[in-house]
Design brief:
globular, TAT_signal, 17 helices, four-stranded mixed beta sheet, single chain, Dipeptide-binding Protein, domain 3, D-Maltodextrin-Binding Protein, domain 2, Peptide/Ni-bd, 2 domains, alpha+beta, ABC transporter substrate-binding protein
């Protein structure tokens, strides 16, 4: 199904520059950071690629360059009103991550390694309380200015300021400051010895201090930047755009980094155009009509029943499922704990019991999905069995405030396949609701004050048609418990605004997968973030136990410590029933024109959309899909 992904455009652009991109846990044990300058760093163990490597294994170094790639909405965004992806207000255009680069970049076939991009060497202090980057003298912005340490400092100071989205402030909060050592050298200083912080610093998007500067030297406030073209050092620049519905990027002919080992075989299209359609139906029909080149299909029904037609039959359009080893992230019905109705864990557990996943998978999803049972499903980050001694060391201090079940096995999601049944699950849910003070009388489930149990599920209009049959099953089951659910869809801009203000009861969110958990978990579950509009803590979690576990997670010095903290976090979150977990797919479903090609070797950990943009190419002499007219 089509899902609204947590993070918005700001967190999406940031994620593109971060190094943590996988979950293969074949790490060596952590070693003391090096005090000498190196070409690459790893959070644990050593980088996969040796010094002097020529290209990543999953690219075609001889891929032809040229042509136009035309794409549709990469998510539920249907229009844009700004080019600044780092602020809270408004909706940023898709693809802006191609304009910005960072000091380092990761690879798609290893975990938490960072290779020099803008930086040509990296020096981590012996006490790990700072990292110093030397900027490649060739690096320059799209306006021709060299990238300097002052620009890097300006970028950090801006992203940590109140003019940036709260998620940005939270993500970089452990970086105390950036110090300009000389015009080509920048040092980041940290609050603590945290192995993730050099990667966070290296993955920070860098932009020119001239972005937003008027000819007279005055400056437009960062949070007021709208259609002022960003000044970044990335491979693409904005070519043209129209009506907040189409945008075309052009490969910068003067791009400075095209010969770097981390860039060989990438950025193969001369132009990349995004066309935004009003809803999923229009988007699908446009693809079948040949209006754009590739579709990452998130709707199982479409993949089986609707991604068909004469162009598929002729071979002009190709369907393929690509295996991937990403963690799944969490996707589910998210409850807002700021609402009194959701504050009792027994109520939240009852709502989990009412979802009949087996029926949905069989009748609506063509048995293509698996049920989520962890915030880190499909990875070694998911806990198994009883807590380890390391996990208990983190959990025991909070035993009095935690559900005793946290100290047992992870919870198992309810099933309705025989001998299980939805009726049995609802009987269990009814008892939990009664224990929480909710009883059925006068035609509704009511609390001691006589108030009926009712809440709203918020969605955006573009996806409502996909979710209607799912919501019909779920709301019908809740109705049998006496719970009244109102399903409301609004346009995307209002939907995002309400989420940023925490003005919702329940909604469906996909939390992006992470392979090496770190600072983003603080933004999602930290108590402080719960009170910051626009943060990732949509749930409104405020827990001293979770805060303590998050501190241990971000300060982990070894892989074993990281796993213990992540397992402990997952146990507390799953037993808290903050979301009704939904489902995931073990493959990327991609339909594409036969004029496109991709490397023979697939990466391990990747998003299908970014993979297409960064490593695919157009076959020579192949005509592109019809681009938007301006």
């Amino acid at each position: 199904m089509t899902i609204r992904t947590l993070g918005g455009t700001a967190r999406g652009a940031l994620a593109k520059g971060l190094a943590a991109a996988g979950v293969a846990l074949a790490f060596g044990m952590a070693t003391m950071p090096s005090a000498h300058a190196v070409y690459a760093i790893a959070q644990y163990g050593a980088p996969k690629y040796p010094q002097g490597f020529t290209h990543f294994d999953y690219v075609n170094p001889d891929a032809p360059k040229g042509g136009t790639l035309v794409l549709a909405n990469p998510d539920r965004l249907t229009s844009f009103d700004k080019f600044n992806p780092f602020t809270l207000r408004g909706n940023a255009a898709p693809g802006l991550g191609m304009l910005f680069e960072s000091l380092t970049t990761g690879s798609m076939d290893e975990v938490a390694s960072a290779y020099g991009l803008l930086a040509d060497d990296i020096r981590i202090a012996p006490d790990a309380l700072s990292v110093t980057f030397h900027i490649n003298p060739r690096a320059h912005f799209s306006n021709g200015d060299p990238v300097t340490a002052a620009d890097v400092k300006f970028s950090l100071d801006t992203l940590k300021s109140r003019q940036a989205a709260p998620s940005m402030q939270a993500y970089f909060s452990e970086i105390t400051r950036a110090v300009v050592v000389d015009p080509a050298t920048i040092r980041f200083e940290f609050k603590s010895n945290n192995r993730e912080l050099p990667l966070i610093a290296g993955g920070m998007p860098v932009f020119s201090h001239k972005w937003g500067m008027r000819p007279d030297g005055s400056r437009i406030a960062f949070d007021q930047l709208a259609f002022e073209p960003p000044i970044g050092s990335g491979p693409y620049v904005i070519d043209r755009y129209s009506n907040g519905r189409t945008i075309t990027y052009q490969l910068d002919p003067n791009y400075w980094g095209k010969d770097l080992a981390v860039r060989v075989g990438t950025n193969n299209f001369t132009r990349i155009t995004y066309k935004l359609y009003s809803d999923d139906v229009a988007r699908l029909e446009a693809f079948k009509a040949g209006e754009y080149d590739a579709l990452v299909e998130n709707v199982s029904r479409n993949w089986v029943r609707r991604d068909v037609g004469k162009r598929f039959d002729s071979g002009e359009l190709i369907k393929r499922e690509f295996p991937q080893h990403n963690g799944t992230g969490m996707q589910g019905f998210v409850m807002n704990l700021r609402k009194p109705v959701f504050q009792d864990v027994r109520v939240r557990h009852a709502l989990d019991l009412a979802l009949d996943f087996q029926w949905l998978n069989r009748m609506l999803f063509y048995s293509q999905y698996r049920r989520l049972d962890s915030w880190f499903a499909n990875t070694p980050l998911q806990p198994k069995g009883l807590p380890s001694p390391g996990e208990l060391a983190l959990l025991d201090p909070w035993r009095k405030s935690l559900d005793p079940a946290v100290f047992g096995p992870p919870p198992v999601q309810p099933v309705t396949t025989p001998p299980g049944s939805l009726r049995a699950n609802l009987l269990q849910a009814r008892q939990l609701l009664a224990d929480a003070g909710w009883t059925y009388r006068d035609g509704a489930l009511r609390n001691a004050k006589g108030e009926p149990f009712t809440f709203e599920v918020l969605d955006d209009t573009a996806a409502s048609s996909q979710w209607a049959p799912i919501m019909a099953q779920y709301t019908q089951a809740l109705k049998r418990l006496g719970i009244q659910v109102n399903y409301r869809s609004v346009d995307f801009a209002l939907y995002q605004k309400r989420l940023d203000a925490f003005d919702f009861d329940m909604t469906t969110i996909k939390f992006p997968d992470v392979q090496v958990p770190g600072a983003e978990q603080v933004d999602r579950f930290g108590s402080k973030a719960a009170d910051e509009a626009g943060s990732g803590n949509l749930i409104g979690v405020k827990s001293l136990a979770i805060d303590a576990i998050l501190k241990a997670l971000t300060q982990a010095q070894t892989l074993e410590q990281l796993l213990d903290a992540t397992h402990a976090l997952d146990r507390v979150l799953m037993h808290g029933y903050y979301v009704v977990p939904q489902w995931y797919s073990a493959t990327h479903r991609v339909a594409y024109r036969n004029t496109l090609a991709y490397p023979a070797k697939l990466p391990l950990y990747y998003g299908a959309g970014d993979w297409i943009i960064s490593t695919w190419w157009r076959k020579p002499q192949a005509a592109p899909a019809q681009a938007a007219q301006h």
